[in-house]
Amino acid sequence: xxxxxxxDAAASCYLRFGVAKTTAAxxxxxxxxxxxxxxxxxxxHEAIFLAVLTRxxxxxxxxxxVHLAQVEDPLxxxxxxxxxxxxxxxxxxxxxxxxxxxSAAWAATQAIRVEALRRIGEAGVRPLLDSYIxxxxxxxxxxxxxxxxxxxxxxxxxxxxxxGGRQPDEVRRQLATWFLPPFERVLGLQRxxxxxxxxx
Length: 200
Description:
The chain has one domain (45-188): Tetracycline Repressor, domain 2 (Orthogonal Bundle), CATH 1.10.357. Helices cover 76% and strands 0% of the residues. The protein contains eleven helices and no strands. Mean pLDDT is 86; it is low at 193-200.
């Protein structure tokens, strides 16, 4: 993960004070620069938050690629990738601070608008759909909609503490039952193995 003194300081402040209570002054002090210098570099406190979230999400996406290396079926890969992401959001300190504290609703509102997160999501989804895009089964708009839907579902689960009181196997069942079938119909696929039995 790329190091940046401002982003490193912001992440540290989020863990120490919480996202909602961290101020630009806190970050500037942690870096050892003035607020004016901080704003000249990033423009706003919100921009710093989004940059931290993007950096952390890129690192998580790289780990997801390693985790999913042996999963070839497109539908299973989407499902397992979502389950992995939900677990990582809870496990990674910065993600947990962003989506698990008092700032969860605000963070979710900000995250859904981050174009960089959509690019990360598309980078993971597009290779699974290349052949369907080539033969016209899936359009570019379909890819955009799919990535948008995946991000919205991930953020929804993440912004509700404890997955809304549901255990991972229950979340997997919900996604397998209600989320994957539309993709099965669009792509004309059948899942190779029952999603509920896929080893995490």
